[in-house]
């Protein structure tokens, strides 16, 4: 019988991991809500059309049919449902939202990834000012200090950097897409073979160096001075310089890097992107950026928007792996000692009341829990 087996890519959570995860969620909720963000919750099920701008990558969607035969999906993303909400309501903008919920993405077989993930995040809608990006970076910095024992590194990029650069050397959309994907995937031999056709272009030397333009901001900005780049490319470099300059003054303990050959988290991103990662674990703990065409898929008029997602499961894994479990202490007592046992429980770190009906079972219980047994009955039999 397989009725006790979970679907692939899901898991039950209990014990220490469940406790740690719940604590992290409460810290995130308090940190965000105290900055004036309004909570928003959207349905787990959405129409498939909501996610047309969603970049699947190595994932697939969970698809179902509703009672009318229309395709609906388990949400793989939290940003686009909020865009759908805004397009169908008269909520005045600008607004700051925050959300918390599970998303579902079918990952490649044997990838080791879970298909169900818990994500929190923020959406700042109607703010064209760079202050919106700075608000996200401040929150990343604050949350990483509260949730983790070690600093994270924030990787900065520009969502449309590849499009702007490649538009200088070709108008062939398919070719641009192929070159960019080879660059993003770090397939250097394929990339160099593709750009060989641009040897006569003034941008060729930059194209050769492009895959290696990642690292400390000072180093990258120095390298970029060697190339004669178009005004559109220079505008994006200046934007990154502005962000780094601001961060040096306001986020003194935050480490930054630049990656000019990274792919935007989603295809609806339009400007600055940022990702936060820890050297102790794989994957991005924080990810976000600007997407000023947020509502373009739902209405004629777009809105400026900046958002950030928080991978709660990855952060939980990091914290659990570093947390030493507290030594449990099992309190065995007689029924008429309940009040005394409650008092002892309050003053005992890691205390647990034993509900066993005799000392022998309490000893077995303590062994299973790897706990120290506190016997309030002094060995007296209870039956």
Automatic annotation (TrEMBL):
Residues 16-313 form the Class II Histidinyl-tRNA synthetase (HisRS)-like catalytic core domain. It is found in: Cytoplasm. Pathway: Amino-acid biosynthesis; L-histidine biosynthesis; L-histidine from 5-phospho-alpha-D-ribose 1-diphosphate: step 1/9. GO terms for molecular function: catalytic activity, acting on a protein; glycosyltransferase activity; histidine-tRNA ligase activity. InterPro entries: aa-tRNA-synth_II/BPL/LPL (IPR045864), HisRS-like_core (IPR041715), HisRS/HisZ (IPR004516), HisZ (IPR004517). Keywords: Amino-acid biosynthesis, Cytoplasm, Glycosyltransferase, Histidine biosynthesis, Transferase. It holds the Pfam family tRNA-synt_His. The keyword Glycosyltransferase applies. Signal peptide: none annotated. L-histidine binds at residues 77-79, 105, 119, 123, 268-269. One of its GO terms (cellular component) is cytoplasm. The keyword Glycosyltransferase applies. GO terms for biological process: histidyl-tRNA aminoacylation; L-histidine biosynthetic process. Heteromultimer composed of HisG and HisZ subunits. Required for the first step of histidine biosynthesis. May allow the feedback regulation of ATP phosphoribosyltransferase activity by histidine. HAMAP family: HisZ. Belongs to the class-II aminoacyl-tRNA synthetase family. HisZ subfamily. This function is generally fulfilled by the C-terminal part of HisG, which is missing in some bacteria such as this one. This is ATP phosphoribosyltransferase regulatory subunit. It comes from Companilactobacillus halodurans. The lineage of its organism: Bacteria, Bacillati, Bacillota, Bacilli, Lactobacillales.
